[in-house]
Structure formats: structure tokens, C-alpha cells
Design brief:
Structural class: mainly alpha
Oligomer: single chain
Number of strands: 9
Strand content: 5-15%
Distance between the termini: 42 Å
Shape: globular
Number of helices: 23
Helix content: 40-55%
Radius of gyration: 24 Å
């Protein structure tokens, strides 16, 4: 066989005869392209890779005992071999290529004039969306607006400004083209394009434009409104909340999501669907009186809050109880003496409990000094207050890793905070305080609204970052927030001692995947980001 192989040239054979040229030139075929362009969002939103890149390694999260990407969370020899970064690079550039192909081919798709505008708006939004993740994560790396066909062995280094010029152009077209509502849930709308554009303006320090665009969303009569109760945001029965401006949609039928399957979805994700419910849970199921169940979740024990994050919430702020759980109730058939099913079995709290009080309890307690050392470093990375936002008690079984929970990418509360930050940067502290107080009024416990209000003099960049942590913790924004404000290294060193040991200035960019560097032939032009090997 070897001899014959040497003498014969391998020829590709396409038994279906289908090509992009004859599929994407029909309305039905073009719809498959647009739908596929959306699907790549699922590689980041709701996935461990995306949470590690976007949330950990910041001032508010550090490694739990089950952490697998400590190089991202604690900057321990972070290099281009990191598989989370490699996966996201691969999938985002595949998404970019699809968006490029769709935008450049749309005139040949046979769409009605009205539908053509909408589909181009969606693809423009998605290209901007993916390019934002790429340029903020890796900096001025490869950029193109042309569809790639066949094997390409070179890559370019493009200035960050070029990325953002295209991002702004795409989002402005999207905002002009898209309707206020879409017939299919999860598709991008005019309000979503404007909200993301406001985020982009803020990212680039274009504060006047950011404020104007945030106001366009807040005053646009889109029907968005803050939930009256913060905790209601996270109920599985409330996934289509009016507070949500843009979401990555996961189907209730898990088979329709993105779990890899050798027959039907060979290019899917190894875990599939939304996995956030696994990642922030403490190890509870080996405690006396406790066993793993659906209600309390499957504890992967990946990430735990820094002490700083827990201390950000005042006693008047309902977002703490709306975001974290501290009590686990006995559910095992084997129970400690004096504890019945349904009684408290484990209590993990950010508070300090006197030793004599702890000793008097029949249940196990883990208080502030049990979880953290005096300097805020972690003492116990197995037991801690657990982020409960993403838990899913509707899963079919206690070991089910997939959740049908949608991922809220942009919420109305974030738009208020964008407006506040932009107003502050423009010197209007009164307006900034007013926008912040919209969010804090909803966050107040009953009877505590007045206590939760801030004054114009309270508004600083650090205060806004604190407020964003209280409101948006875990929502795949924190690393970008700290980078955008130039505060990543400063705040990690100040507030996250376990993450601070190895962090350096070059960590405001991630390393380019080594697989990419190995694949290109123009290695002198396309090389690794500074600070990495």
C-alpha cells in the first residue's frame, strides 16, 4: 500500500456535491450560515474556558480545590499551551470566518430586502462581538474581513485600533439595521446592538458616545426593566426576564445544544450546554448529614470568592443573599446525632463566629477565619460561601453536567452602570450617582432603600468597579472590566493575595496559543505576545 500511495495523488471527493457556493446562495442555506454564526458563542458563554478567562485571575475570584486552570486564575506559568485559550482562539476565528463569508455573500443569498438588512445586522453584530473577545484577550493579533478558503499558513499582526474601527462600523450598521424585537428568542435586536456599542465606547474611553448610546437603550421604549427582586433574576422559571437585553440561548432539550457527539455533532463541546452551575459550588457532599443531590448541585469546586468580594456587600444589600448561599440542609439517610433531615448541616459564612458559639452547634460551621487567613489568603479552598446565581435544580439527574439555563450577556443593570461610569468620566458626578442609585434601589433590602443610596461625592472609578462586582459577579465580565479601567494588576495585588503572587503587567494580554504559532510560516512577523515564551 505504501508503494501505491507514493505513486498516486490523493484526490478529495465530496459525495454530496454541496459547497458553500451552492448552499449559501439560497435563502434556506443562508439561514444555516447565520444560525451557525450564533452557535460559536456557546464556546465561551456558560463554559469553563470562558469563565476562567473572563472571571478568574481578578480581584473577586480565586482557585477552589478543583481548579484546573490555575495558570489563568493565579498566573502560574501562564503560556500559550493553555487549552482554554487554545479552544477559544480556534472557535472564535472559525466564527469570524463564517461571519466574513456571510457578510460578503449576502447579496447572492436571495433574501428579501427587509430580511437581508436584518441578517446582515446580525452577522455584523456577531463579527464585532467575536472580534471584541479576540482583541481584548490577545491584543493586536490576526485580523481579516475576508473569508478564508483552503489552507492559509500566514497570519498578520494588526493594530488594536483597526479592530475597533471595524467593531464600531459593524455595530453601527447592526444598530441601524436591526428591529426592536425579533420573532425568534436569542437573536440580536436593535437594543442589544446599542447596549453592546455602549460597552465598546466605554472600553475605548469614548465616554460621551458611551453615555449617549446607554441613554438610547435606557430611553428607547424597548420594554426593558429591572427585576423588582434581584434574586428573581436567577430563577430557572424566569430565563426570559425583561431585564435581559442579550442572551446566549440554550435549549430545554439538551440534545439540541452543543454537546459533542461522534455521529451528529463531532465538533461540539466535550461538556455541552451551560456548565456554570458546576463551577462555583463548594464541596458539600462529603460533610456529615449531606449527600449530593439535584437541589444543591454537582460541586466541581473550581472557583471560590475572594474575601474582598464577600466583604463588598453591606447588610442592607439583598444581592448578597441573591448571589450566594451559606446554608446546606441535611439530606442524607445517615445523619449526625441531634440533626434531622431538613436541619442545618453545614454553615459557611463570611462573618466571624466566636469559637464558643461554633463549638455549641450540632452542625458544622466554617466562618471567616476558617476560610481565610488574616491577610485574606485562602485557608480552606473546599468550603466557602457559594455563588448560587447559576444553579439549576431543574436538571434531570444529580450528576447531569448540562443545564438549559440561558446565559445573560447584557442586562439592563449593566447599561445603568455604563452610563454611570461614562457620566463620571465626563465630570457629571450627580448624573453618575443617579444611574448607580437606580441599580442600588433595586438591590436594597425592604426598608433599606435610603441606606443604599449614594451621593455624587461617593462616585469614583473604584466605587463603580466595586458596584459592578456586587451586581455582575460571575457574569463573565470582570477581567475585561479591570483591564478596561487599567486596574487589573493594581486591584489583584490589593484584593486577591492568592492571585497576586505571580501577576505582572504583561498579563493584561493573554498568550497566543502555541498551536497557532507553530502553524504559521511567518514566525518572525507573527510572534508571541510580550512576556510569554
Amino acid at each position: 500500500m505504501g508503494l501505491f500511495a507514493c505513486e498516486n495523488t490523493l484526490e478529495e471527493y465530496n459525495p454530496s456535491g454541496l459547497t458553500s457556493a451552492n448552499v449559501y446562495t439560497t435563502p434556506e442555506g443562508f439561514e444555516t450560515l447565520v444560525n451557525a454564526a450564533y452557535s460559536y458563542q456557546r464556546w465561551w458563554y456558560g463554559k469553563e474556558e470562558g469563565y476562567n478567562i473572563a472571571e478568574t485571575g481578578t480581584d473577586i475570584w480565586t482557585s477552589g480545590a478543583g481548579e484546573v486552570y490555575r495558570d489563568l486564575t493565579q498566573y502560574l506559568n501562564l503560556q500559550g499551551s493553555n487549552t482554554a485559550l487554545t479552544n477559544e482562539w480556534r472557535e472564535f476565528y472559525a466564527a469570524i470566518n463564517l461571519c466574513n463569508g456571510g457578510i460578503n455573500r449576502i447579496d447572492e443569498a436571495g433574501l428579501s430586502a427587509t430580511l437581508r438588512l436584518v441578517r446582515e445586522g446580525e452577522l455584523r453584530f456577531l463579527r464585532a462581538f467575536y472580534y471584541w473577545h479576540i482583541v481584548e484577550t490577545w491584543g493586536g493579533v490576526h485580523f481579516t474581513t475576508t473569508e478564508t478558503n483552503g489552507i492559509v499558513t500566514t497570519a498578520n499582526k494588526t493594530p488594536v485600533e483597526t479592530f475597533y474601527k471595524q467593531i464600531f462600523e459593524d455595530l453601527q450598521i447592526a444598530a441601524n439595521n436591526l428591529p426592536a424585537t425579533q420573532p425568534q428568542y436569542g437573536r440580536v435586536t436593535k437594543g442589544a446592538a446599542q447596549a453592546f456599542l455602549a460597552r465598546m465606547y466605554l472600553t475605548r474611553g469614548m465616554n460621551k458616545e458611551a453615555l449617549e448610546m446607554a441613554k438610547a437603550v435606557l430611553e428607547g421604549n424597548y420594554g426593558y426593566q429591572l427585576e423588582a427582586n434581584y434574586a428573581d433574576l436567577w430563577k430557572m422559571s424566569n430565563l426570559k426576564s425583561k431585564e435581559v437585553i442579550y442572551t446566549v440561548d440554550y435549549a430545554a432539550n439538551l440534545a439540541l445544544n452543543d454537546l459533542a457527539n461522534s455521529t451528529f455533532n463531532p465538533y461540539g463541546h466535550s461538556r455541552g450546554s451551560n456548565n456554570a452551575h458546576l463551577l462555583f459550588l463548594m464541596k458539600y457532599d462529603d460533610r456529615p448529614g449531606m449527600t449530593r443531590d439535584i437541589t444543591n448541585g454537582r460541586p466541581f469546586n473550581r472557583y471560590m470568592p475572594t474575601r474582598f468580594l464577600l466583604d463588598l456587600f453591606s447588610a442592607d444589600d439583598a444581592r448578597y443573599e441573591g448571589s450566594f448561599m451559606e446554608v446546606w440542609y441535611a439530606n442524607s439517610n445517615t445523619l449526625p446525632t441531634g440533626i434531622a433531615k431538613g436541619d442545618t448541616a453545614v454553615y459557611c459564612t463570611k462573618k466571624e463566629i466566636p469559637d464558643n458559639v461554633e463549638a455549641s452547634k450540632k452542625y458544622q460551621t466554617y466562618d471567616r477565619s476558617d476560610i481565610y487567613l488574616a491577610d485574606g489568603t485562602v485557608k480552606d479552598n473546599l468550603r466557602y460561601p457559594t455563588l448560587s446565581k447559576f444553579m439549576d435544580p431543574s436538571r434531570a439527574s444529580l450528576n447531569e453536567a448540562q443545564s438549559a439555563r440561558d446565559v445573560f450577556v447584557i442586562r439592563l443593570a449593566e447599561v445603568y452602570l455604563i452610563a454611570a461610569e461614562a457620566a463620571m468620566q465626563l465630570g457629571d458626578l450627580a448624573a453618575a450617582a443617579e444611574y448607580v442609585n437606580k441599580v442600588r434601589t433595586r438591590a436594597a433590602k425592604p426598608g433599606k432603600t435610603a441606606a443604599m443610596q449614594i451621593k455624587p461625592a461617593d462616585v469614583t472609578l473604584d466605587f463603580i468597579l466595586d458596584e459592578r462586582a456586587r451586581e455582575l459577579a460571575g457574569e463573565q465580565l470582570r477581567w475585561f472590566d479591570l483591564k478596561r479601567t487599567g486596574k487589573l494588576v493594581e486591584r489583584v495585588k490589593k484584593h486577591a493575595p492568592d492571585n497576586a503572587i505571580n501577576i505582572q503587567e504583561h498579563h493584561t494580554l493573554r498568550p497566543i496559543p502555541q498551536t497557532q504559532l507553530d502553524a504559521v510560516v511567518n514566525k518572525s512577523e507573527f510572534n508571541q505576545n510580550a512576556g510569554y515564551q
